Amino acid sequence: MAASTYTVKRGDTLWSISQKHKITVDRLKAINHLKSNTIYSGQKLKVSGKPVQKVVVPRNPPLPFAVAMSSKKVLGVPVYAIHVNLAHPRVKISPLLPTAGLGHGGARLRYLAQQPELVAAINGGYFHPQSYIPAGDLVFQGRQLASGRIQTALSLTADNKARIHDRIGSWKGYETVIATGPHVVRSGRLVIQPRVEGYRDPAVWGRAKRSAVGLVNNEYLIFITSPQALTLAEVGKIMMKMKAKDVILLDGGSSAGMIWEKRLVVQPARALSFGIGVFLRRKV
């Protein structure tokens, strides 16, 4: 379809324009040579009828991408998603730690994400608001840096296999562990039982901005963030629609945030204990 022109109206955003013309925000910025998300009333933008590209995940041969982003509505909810192919030899996921270390006041996500070879970043798990110490176990480069009471975790082995599972006695053999939760999808089924998993804070199961991580399989991982306030069940249904079989929450509310290629997609309203980074290494 040939490109056409759209005149920006008061109240428009790149997101709303991209949804109206069925293209991604990144493509809209690229064809208009925009370096930021700033637009103004009366500005003429080139638009295209090309639909939002879907990430297709064939079972055989292996996944054709390393890291990809999608920004679209899922079940009527605006969702930003980072799709990660752990089978790709250059891909790595790792916690993003403040320069001063854990427990020294935290850091904004944009500062945590200032690392070489980083493609994407998202906020991490829960933390104590005064000490900034993670509320669950945290393993970084095979070393356990924090211990907590949270019973579920995303774990990655040195050979880049991912699991979402219950806490175990020792994390020996795991390169990265981020304890967070609760489950919203387990083995392909919606599971909303935060009290059973030990959560007592009503903010966990209330309506809030959300970030989550899910596995389609042990080599295909999806991080999502939505700026819209959601319930646990709504997060689970969105992730099931995206084919995730096991899903746990990351921290949400004022912590929810995401960065894609050095650009803040969703900005957290506060400093974080740690973030999660997706790296594309130049050399293996």
Automatic annotation (TrEMBL):
InterPro entries: LysM, LysM_dom_sf, NAGPA
Organism of origin: Deinococcus cellulosilyticus (strain DSM 18568 / NBRC 106333 / KACC 11606 / 5516J-15)
Protein name: LysM domain-containing protein
Highest taxon listed in the record's lineage: Bacteria
LysM domain segment(s): 4-47
